[in-house]
Amino acid sequence: MKKKTKEKVLKGILSILTGFLLISIAYYERKIERSPMIIANVDENNNRVYQDVQKEDLMSILENETGVFLLVSSRISAGRFIDLLYDFKGDYTIYVYSLKNDEISLSLNNNDIIVNKKQSKLYDELISYLGVYADDYVFVQEDGTVVKTDYKVVYTPTVLFIKNGRPIYSYSNISEEMTDDELKEIYKQGYEALNEFNL
After folding, report:
1. Of 131, 126, 65, residue with least CA distance to 101
2. Most CB within 10 Å of its CB: which of 106, 135, 158, 171?
């Protein structure tokens, strides 16, 4: 009987110590200052680093910097595009911003446009900044008919090349069937425009 009691006491003590250790680790990780630089797809020869943009910094960076902006609906989906952009990166910073909580959501019901979620004020500013680089929000029905709306949208992922705060080249990858080689060719054109564009 004493042996079982000792085992229970030891298990209890181990459980308490394990719980304390896990709580300490979680607390410590929460206290670490988070860097806006994120490493993606690290291999032996390359540390692929990009700038993760916060909401409050988005417009300031767009209006003042030079580099490549990747606008995505989820940072998780950004990896493939970051890897492809790095083939041409040079000295340019790659910025990544997730529009997930900012973008507008529409649906179509018997040719009536329904606003499911309004865009944020920041999204309005982004659309205004993009000008001709913002896309028309359209629906393509099963029979191929295109239904236009009066809204502008940033289809994601979009890669935007900016020079001294001005957009000079943009591409929205709305087809999942694009191969890496096709995307590389498009991104190469963007980098060439960035290198050649003079204000």
Report:
1. 126
2. 158
Please say whether the beta carbons of 81 and 157 come within 8 A: yes
Other residues' Cβ atoms within 10 Å of the Cβ of residue 31: 7
Q: Are 49 and 37 in contact (CB under 8 A)?
A: yes
Residues present in the chain in total: 199
Is the pTM higher than 0.90? no
Nearest-angstrom CA–CA distance, 44 and 57: 32
Torsion, CA 63, CA 67, CA 68, CA 69, rounded to 10: -30
Cα dihedral across residues 126, 130, 136, 142: positive or negative:
negative
Q: Quote the strand ranges of the chain, DSSP E.
A: 37-40, 48-52, 67-72, 93-98, 105-109, 112-117, 135-140, 146-153, 158-163, 166-172
43: which 2 tokens? Answer: 């291999």
